[in-house]
Design goal:
two-stranded antiparallel sheet; six-stranded mixed beta sheet; globular; alpha/beta; homodimer
């Protein structure tokens, strides 16, 4: 998706050869108009599918999931939580996830009330690198018996293994921008078939 | 706001005489169409003000902030983070906050890049009880020199002190539903002037 690639080149910055920061528009400050245009692209790609819910994970996935839901006739968004609070209740699906950015294990949870075998899910997140959070979301969906009809992220770091892992599992994954490499201060992208 | 009061009565449930759960539409599963109608009410209340940014806190505030931003001509949303990750950077505003639900202290942070003395803020969150998270957001805004032009929450638990604390500070606070009491399985609300 050219629009996102251009924005990453314009406003992203490289912390080292592994990390690109897009905190001015995607995951700390949020450019909602821009996110809406990403939501529109995700809708165009998946519009022939019937989803019943969008599943994402706190916190950065929530805004993108919100604007996607607006396009899919306001299907509900469910966001997995990253830790248990005393209020969440005991009737939970749980998966253990390793964080790439903090290097710690944490638990992601969803209330059993909000995922069922009747659900057809679009799973959404902002970033895909090693795929640990996505694996957690897939695990939660599988526990519930819901079917996973599609997955989408804004940015895939394709030099890490998460994207290929998910495709190898047979899922339909849309990554709006696929970063091929971050080296010598230069970000390069993988050309994609659905560039429009 | 009658719409939210009705929804709380319909879909909320009481955990004890202190806690009402609205996780089926506001803070775990999200009814985006309903949140949009809340965003519209918040816009109607504040539409004569000029905001440059919406400040909220992860995670439950993000979806509401997103739909409000859509109404205020897509001003940026900035969400404060609840813990430091190794990626967030060192140039941060920080405030210490005590969580009402987990009883722990945590740090809320915002990158100094995203709040400045030129900013006119609308501060948004889903819930207001003791006001600890709101106090953290107000502290971050004050550190930055930004002016706080308004604050809004979906649900204020008016039998706790947060709402009055913020009004006593002189701020313009819009709480869409103000819960007066939760007792004997019954939720009662404070009648508000701006019910429409």
């Amino acid at each position: 998706m050219k629009l996102l690639e251009q924005r990453i080149k314009q406003d992203g910055y490289i912390l080292d050869d592994n990390i690109v920061k897009v905190d001015s528009f995607l995951n700390h400050q949020l450019d909602i108009r821009f996110l809406s245009s990403l939501g529109e692209e995700i809708y165009r790609y998946f519009r022939d599918k019937e989803f019943t819910k969008i599943l994402t994970i706190e916190a950065s996935g929530i805004a993108l999931a919100t604007v996607i839901a607006e396009r899919f006739n306001y299907i509900p968004v469910v966001f997995a939580k990253k830790q248990k609070t005393k209020n969440i209740g005991t009737d939970l699906f749980e998966e253990s996830v390793k964080s790439y950015t903090t290097d710690k294990e944490y638990t992601v949870t969803v209330s059993k009330k909000f995922l069922s075998p009747d659900d057809k899910l679009l799973i959404v997140d902002d970033f895909l690198a090693e795929g640990n959070a996505m694996r957690g979301l897939i695990g939660l969906a599988n526990q519930s018996g819901a079917s996973i009809e599609g997955l989408s992220v804004a940015i895939e770091k394709s030099f890490q293994s998460g994207g290929d892992m998910i495709r190898d599992m047979g899922y339909d994954l849309l990554s709006l921008a696929r970063i091929k490499s971050i080296a010598n201060g230069e970000i390069t992208f993988i050309k994609q078939d659905y560039d429009w």
